[in-house]
Every structure is written in structure tokens, then in C-alpha cells.
Amino acid sequence: MYLINSPVVRAETLRFKEEGVFGVVKDVFLPWYNAYRFLVQAASRYEAGIGHHGAGGAGEGGEEEEGEDEDDEGDADADAAGAGAGGPAAARRRVFDPASVDLAREATNVLDVWVGAAARGLVAFVREEMAAYRLYTVVPELVRFVDRLTNVYVRFNRARLKGGGGERDARVALATLHSVLLTLARAMAPFTPFLSEHMYRNLVRALPAGSMPESVHFAPFPGGEEGAEGGGDGGGDAGEGEGGGEAAAAAAAARRASDKRIRASVERMTRVVELGRVLRERRGAPLKRPLRRAVVVHPDAEFLDDVAGRLRAYVLSELNVRALEPCADPLKYCSLRAEPEWGALAARGLGRELPRVAAALKALSPEEVLAIETGEGGIEVAGVTLAKGEVRVIREFRAPGGAGGQEQQQQQQQQQQQQQQAAAGGGGGGGGKKGAAAAAAAAPLGHLDAAGDGDVLVVLDFEPDPALCRAGAAREVVNRFMRLRKSAGLVPTDSVELFWRAVEAGGAGGGGGGGGGGPDAAAATTGLASLFAEGSDELAYLRGALVAPLRPLPEGAGSSLPDGLVSVARDVASVDLGAEAGLGGGELEIVIAAKAGSALVERLAAAAKV
Description:
It is a single chain. The chain is an alpha+beta fold. 48% of the residues lie in helices and 13% in strands. Strand 4 (379-381) and strand 5 (384-386) form a beta hairpin. The chain starts with 17 loop residues before the first helix and ends with a helix.
């Protein structure tokens, strides 16, 4: 793979570097194998009837909790021996059978549809590039696909793949991932013969015996964009006649159009998520803390429909926001300005006219820039007719209605001047495009902040809210318990009980939820102990996420536990409820306990002696 991606295939000189080989392993092989490994382990969980009980699935408004995959360690091939058609099905409640899932009919989840379209696009690209012997273009495209497979499909669908949406939904998601990985192994067999063979042989074990060739190198290369879901090579049946051929061509064209739309929408959605994370990092707002709302600004109605509809749950989950607002009015949250696409204009040979055209473009009003973006034809600027691809539209954040105060308006003006200087500093050889990319960041206006990439603009509302701060702290508590479970060597099937004791920042103990007045009572209602108050949303979330009895440590009993229980793990962690919302924080003591003399206690004791 390293050599395929090198100048050697262009008959140019190569200076071999070990770092390049390690880069291929890091960027291609490891993410690819991790996706395969996750499928095998998730299929084993499915067959064992172990559902997903963690927090933060799509639609719940949060990211995957760290430490949640404490059972996912181990060898994928060892797990594969018990999954699919080759495993001991008699000892299991159900069998993972991807062949029984009709993906064309049952795979209705938006990311199932998208990953299938992306796989077809990859296969078509590899076919085209191999036909022209442009092997060096394959690796970059493969890196992009593997990155999207692991960081979008697998990450966003962890809860579904683990059974969070029910048995049927898990079966469809697993079958979709199985189909994509099988297609990927067949497509990459000419480039990575041994790794592809290794994955292929395990993947086909889940299919009916004899339905696929024994080796990936005996299997046909997968079909392109026009191929069927089952992996045909495309083309209509000659016996169907001209009418059948026209119908097949129309169906293929419709699917290509649908694939193009969903791939564009998901690509923009990933940029929305990335921009939202940049904003959180810039404002020092951890991802576990929910925010009020996110606004996605873009003029494309189809994209906004997708974001507000079938992609909504994923955006809410990955950004951890309570509300999502699509906005089709580019002038409500941002100002528009135009800059030339230097490379495209230079290719036209405008020469001395370039500076004059660039100055005229920058002098256009926001309304005129919007007309360029939404219009179908070109625009005449300084006597030169420009096509849409020769003009770059830049969005810069501003508060709705011009709100934000004089100081914030001055910040915005200073930022615009810096961006114009950065763009001008690039000269006429393409540097202007780099300068325009710097316009992604925007100065925050009060509790609103925004980031954009020149195409889509994301606005987040960072206004402090005590309820959201407590929800974020509850997620942190779940994270602490999950990490403690993992460090103790526990698995989801272990029967344990959870205990807690809160020590407020002011020194008040919060365990037990005692009554009375004074500082202790105030701490119990506004501090860490308030997360565990009966009837609170936070306690309901904690119990649903942890799926184990959750109780306060007995008061006045030191570190003792109820009779019959022994501690298997204990930790003390600092938890901040949110000083900006007027709330405190403190230390939280958490304990995981099990029945004395149980098999779990004996197992952990034996592991400690090794």
C-alpha cells in the first residue's frame, strides 16, 4: 500500500521512509481492522443476547460514554469462532445471519443507506482508477472511506450495533456493517491480499455454506454504482428487452441521484459535528455538558430537511444539544462576502484584470453575493462574466438583528480586517483560497458563538443553565462509574451494586440525603447530592444508564457497606456542577460492591494473585 501511494507508480524517484509505512498502518490498516473487530464482537454480543445498556445513544442527546466498552477487549478472531454460522448456535439464544436481512428493503436508517452509497461510490472509484492505472489515487480515497466508516458509521451507531434500538434494529445494523466490510475486503484484495483474505474468511462464515467462494481471490470484484445490493456487476438482463433495459437504466440513475444527495448531506452533517466540537473546545465547554440549542445555517433546502429530519438524532447526540434549528436565511446569522477562486480565474488567463475583478467582488453587498450563490447562471463583475465555480462565498457570523453591543461589533470588524489581510496575503496563486478558509472562525457574541467552513455555519448557544449543568454532571458520574468498572475488570453481565457519597465543595457531606435545615440541607438540594434526589431527572438518567442498584453509602458508617457486600472497586473523583450557572461541586466517592463469596469476587481475587 505504501508503494502504491508513492511516486514509483508514476515512474518517479522514491525516497523510502519507514514513517510512510507506519502511516499506512495507522491510517488504513488499524482503523479498518478495528471496524471489523467491532463487528465481530458486536455480533457475539447479539448472539449471546447481551443488549446495550449504556448511555448516550443517538437521539438521547449525548456521546458514547468513555469506558463503556469494558467487554470489548480481546481477540477478534477468537470471538469470530463463536459468531455466525461457524459458532455453537445451540448454546445461544439467536444466530447472527446477515443473509436473512434484505438490506434493500429493511435498511431504512439514514446511515445504513449512506454507508451503502459510500461503499458503492468507493467501488466505482477504484474500478475507474484501476482501469486508468492511477493506482496512487486509491489510497487517499480508501483513507477517507475508512475514516468515515469508523468515525461516522460505527461511532454514531454504537448504540444500535449493541442492541440499543432493539433486536431487529441491531440485526439490520450488523448486517449493513457486515455487507460493507465484505465489499471492502473484496475491493481491496488486489492491494492488500493477505489482510483482505484474513477478514473475508471470517466474514463469510456468517453466510450460508457455499454461498461465497472459499477465498476472496476467487470472488468476483464487487460491482460499481449501478450494481445491485447483492453485489452484482451491473448491467441489465439481455432477455428483458429494450423496455427492461430502459427501466433498469432509469432505476440506476435514480439510485445514483439518491446516493449523491445522501452522501452530500452526511458529509455536511459530519462538518456540522466537527464545527460544533471546535466551538465547544474554544469555549471550554466539555462535550458531556448539554447545551440549549444549535443552529445550522445553509441555503440548501434539501440539506436542511435532512438535518431537521432523518439526521437530527445524530446531530443532537454528537453535539449534545437539546434543540436543533435549521436556518435557510444566510443573512440572519451571518454576513456574506465574495472572493475570487484564484486558481479558476488564473486558468482563464485574465492576467492584469485579476486585481480589478477581485476588488469588484469584494465590494459586492451581501444581497448581491446571495444572488450569486442562489442564481443559476453567471454574474458580470467589472466587465468579466464569472461562473459560480469562479466565486467563493464566505460566511461570517453576526448576532441576529445586529445585537451584541458596540464592543462585540468592533471585534467583528477587526476580525473581518484580519481575514481580508490573510486573504490578500496569499497573492494571486491560490493563497487567497487559504486565506478565505481562515474565515471559518468567528468572534463570539455574548452567549452565542459560531464557526463555519465557508459552506455551512454552526451557531451554538452557551448560555449557562443550571438544569443543563446538572445533566452534564450526571453524565460525568456515569463516566466515572464506567471507567471504574473497566479498571476493575468487570463485564456487563457481572451482578454488582453501586454506592455513592458526595462531599460538597464547602465540606458538607451529601451521602444519605438527610433532612433538616442549615448548610447541609442547602447542599443536598443544590450540590452534588441533588443529582441523586428521588424523583429528579438526573437520578432517573443515572439508574437507566448504569443498570444496577444505586444507593448512598450508609451515613456514619465510615467506609463500611451493608452486610453481605464487599467492595470490588472504589474511587474518589472531583465533579463540577457548573460554577458559571451558580452551582458548586465537590468530591464524589463511588463504590462498586458485590456479594461476599460470589463467583465474581472469587474471579477478581484469582486475577489479583496472577
